[in-house]
């Protein structure tokens, strides 16, 4: 039973790693998409700056500044594209699927459908009864207690009962039969301390397993606190970054209009585009972190399963 609990814990860990890797691929694809949008905006700005420079309405520094920003954006995109490729390969290794099957374009975007978080005390009670790690430690402690009873049995008297049936007679006489029964009682008077040492060893093993159980419960509470806090932090961060990304998008739009109208500066517009990219990248990371934190919390509480995933996750439009 303890081995079965260990297998269950391994399956949940694998499920959490795979689901987290899946979400990581989606998040890194969003970051690459944000870089593509920024590159498109910078290319448009470079074209505008060149046209103004050619007709003598803008200094060459605007062209150089736009070219530098575009080159930097391309370099950053290469880095994030490589990170996306690595995440896709990790997902392929975890699932055993081909690398072409785990490309971001073939994955269905997902999001949390259930954002409600139970109180910590309820989660801790559920985790103590369902956690595979605690269940394994509890079963090992029970086995160690039984081992003590086995070792103490060597100190008890042993009673052996026996019976024999004899058939007597010869060729000249009539045969007859008789039963012989008896009982033998043995008691270990002196074993050189072997039996008492075995009992002491078993009791020490029992104390060790009891402390292992207590340690497993303490580690469970610590992991649950960490995962519970991570979910709350990631959810708050995602909400803030969603609002920030929307505001940075509006700022970039206004700076672009002002630049086209001749009342804005190129530096302000490029800064706004950089801020927008950073906000979008951070938002994608925060969304992934929230889902990963929920997966870790479900693993700690022992409720992570395919039905749980189907209930908590949904397709993102």
Please tag this protein with its features.
two-stranded antiparallel ribbon, 7 helices, mainly alpha, 74% helix, single chain, 9% strand, 4 strands, 317 residues
- What is the alpha-carbon Rg in Å? 36 Å
Task: Calculate the mean pLDDT score and round it.
Answer: 87
Structural class: mainly alpha
Order of helices and strands: HHEHHEEHHHE
Q: Treating each run of at least 4 consecutive H or I residues as one helix, how many helices?
A: 7
Largest sheet: 2 strands, antiparallel
CA distance, first residue to last residue: 43 Å
Name the overall outline. Answer: rod-shaped
Strand order across the largest sheet: 1-4
Ranges with pLDDT <50 over ≥5 residues? Answer: none
The total of beta strands comes to: 4
Strand content: 5-15%
Helix content: over 70%
Brief synopsis:
The protein has 7 helices and 4 strands, in the order H-H-E-H-H-E-E-H-H-H-E.
Describe what you observe in this structure.
The protein is mainly α and 317 residues long. The chain has helices at 2-54, 60-95, 120-130, 132-153, 194-261, 266-301, 306-312; strands spanning 110-112, 158-168, 176-186, 313-315. The strands form two sheets. The protein has a two-stranded antiparallel ribbon. A two-stranded antiparallel sheet has the order 2-3. Helix 1 (2-54) runs antiparallel to helix 4, helix 1 packs antiparallel against helix 6 and helix 3 (120-130) crosses helix 5 (194-261). The chain is rod-shaped, with a radius of gyration of 36 Å.
Helices and strands, with pairings:
Layout: H1 2-54, H2 60-95, E1 110-112, H3 120-130, H4 132-153, E2 158-168, E3 176-186, H5 194-261, H6 266-301, H7 306-312, E4 313-315
Antiparallel strand pairs: 1-4, 2-3
Helix pairs in contact: 1-2, 1-4, 1-6, 3-5, 4-5, 5-6
């Amino acid at each position: 039973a303890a081995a079965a609990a260990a297998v269950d814990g391994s399956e949940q860990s694998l499920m959490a790693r795979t689901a987290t890797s899946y979400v990581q691929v989606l998040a890194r694809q969003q970051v690459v998409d944000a870089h593509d949008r920024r590159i498109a905006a910078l290319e448009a700005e470079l074209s505008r700056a060149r046209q103004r420079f050619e007709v003598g309405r803008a200094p060459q520094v605007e062209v150089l500044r736009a070219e530098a920003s575009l080159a930097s954006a391309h370099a950053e995109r290469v880095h994030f594209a490589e990170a996306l490729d690595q995440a896709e390969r990790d997902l392929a290794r975890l699932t055993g699927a081909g690398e072409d099957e785990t490309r971001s374009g073939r994955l269905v975007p997902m999001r949390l459908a259930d954002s409600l978080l139970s109180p910590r005390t309820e989660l801790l009670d559920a985790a103590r009864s369902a956690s595979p790690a605690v269940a394994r430690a509890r079963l090992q402690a029970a086995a160690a207690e039984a081992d003590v009873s086995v070792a103490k049995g060597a100190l008890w008297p042993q009673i052996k009962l026996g019976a024999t049936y004899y058939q007597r007679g010869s060729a000249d006489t009539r045969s007859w039969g008789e039963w012989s029964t008896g009982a033998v009682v043995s008691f270990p008077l002196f074993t050189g301390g072997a039996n008492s040492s075995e009992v002491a060893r078993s009791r020490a093993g029992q104390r060790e397993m009891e402390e292992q159980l207590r340690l497993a419960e303490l580690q469970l509470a610590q992991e649950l606190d960490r995962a519970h806090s991570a979910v709350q932090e990631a959810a708050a961060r995602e909400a803030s970054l969603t609002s920030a990304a929307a505001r940075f998008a509006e700022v970039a739009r206004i700076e672009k209009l002002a630049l086209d109208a001749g009342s804005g500066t190129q530096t302000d517009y490029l800064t706004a585009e950089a801020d927008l990219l950073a906000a979008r990248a951070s938002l994608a990371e925060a969304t992934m972190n929230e889902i990963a934190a929920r997966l870790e919390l479900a693993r700690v509480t022992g409720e992570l399963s395919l039905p749980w995933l189907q209930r908590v996750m949904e397709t993102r439009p």
